[in-house]
Specification:
The chain is elongated. The longest helix is centred in the last third of the chain and has 4 residues. It is built from one helix and 30 strands. Helix content is 1%, strand content 54%. The strands form nine sheets. Strands 3-9-8-5-6 form a five-stranded mixed beta sheet, with no helix packed on it. The protein has four domains: 67 residues, Immunoglobulin-like (Sandwich), CATH 2.60.40; 74 residues, Sandwich (Immunoglobulin-like), CATH 2.60.40; 82 residues, Immunoglobulins (Immunoglobulin-like, Sandwich); 86 residues, Macroglobulin (MG2) domain (Immunoglobulin-like, Sandwich), CATH 2.60.40. By secondary structure, it is mostly beta strands.
Amino acid sequence: MNLPGIYVVNVTEEDGCTGEDEVEVLVSDPTVFLGADINVCENESYPVLNALNQGSTYEWFYEGNPLPGEADQTLQTSQGGIYSVTITNQYGCQASDQLLINTFPAVNASITGPPNATLGATVSFQDNTTPAVNGWTWNFGDGTPLVTQQNPSHAFIQVGVRPVFMIASNGICSDTAYLDVNVNWDCPQIGLSAAFTMSTNTVVLSGLGNVELTNNSTNATEYIWDFGDGTGSDPTVNPIHVYTDPGTYTITLTAINYNCTTTTSQSIVVVEFGVGVGEILSEDGFTVYPNPNTGMFTVELDLNEATDLQIELNNVLGQRVYQNSLQQRSYWRKEFDMTSYVKGVYLLRIATDKGVLQRKIIIE
């Protein structure tokens, strides 16, 4: 028999008796395929080979020599060379295959370039990869197209720290090198200027005690204000600043656009009282206590004669938080509860027939 199939045999004896039997002939023809040859770089992990054919026995070889103790379906390789396997199935039939692992030197990508560059100015980069490769891909981190030259030149189109990447490849192995380039403005070319105006050049502490500053700078992206009174810097574009002590102060504005800065300064005078008001506010008959306070305070007014009163309490933005009108009063007292209001400076103003009384109230 040389073909698979079911074979039947009939037997007839001399006395005429007959018998029949059959047998099925199966052909076992196992196959094993480890896969196509593999290229591995020295700095990469070596592959696991799988002979499949579960239930068989396995014998692994390296360069034609048996690998002691390796009798599993899979084999973890550890170096380049020829690996082979012979499997034997449950019928005793065998199959073999081999695979070549080619090992290539690892690529060590390296680049050099300038740590700083000026926007629009051309700078050069060098490939220092070892061993030598034949493929390069540069990404300059500023949205420009990829470059495939070995040693390119580039003019950056965005300021800021730009990550520069270069992928070096020999067609099989590759590696990536990286460096940061700080791309700066050419400051004289961007027209950066610092300028501001003040709502007043004299701040009256008995009034609102503040100055509103309007920023007129050009081509700036951020700002630093210094009010000269030791309160620290303020990055607000158009700040309102409250002074607490009389004196002459220098307000300085620094306008910034990345690496470029410019400054301008103006002087401002801070006085305790406005013209003619000092004498009125110095009278003991107009008191606010406690001041500063936490929002609970009392205002008491005791005049020498009766007068109409117009009472207003405003915040530093000029927004009214209290108002009252009284006729012919020489004495007025009120307990305020402003614990739910924003902390800060408020101005109490009482207009009388004889003049205006003002007090700055500080809620902490």
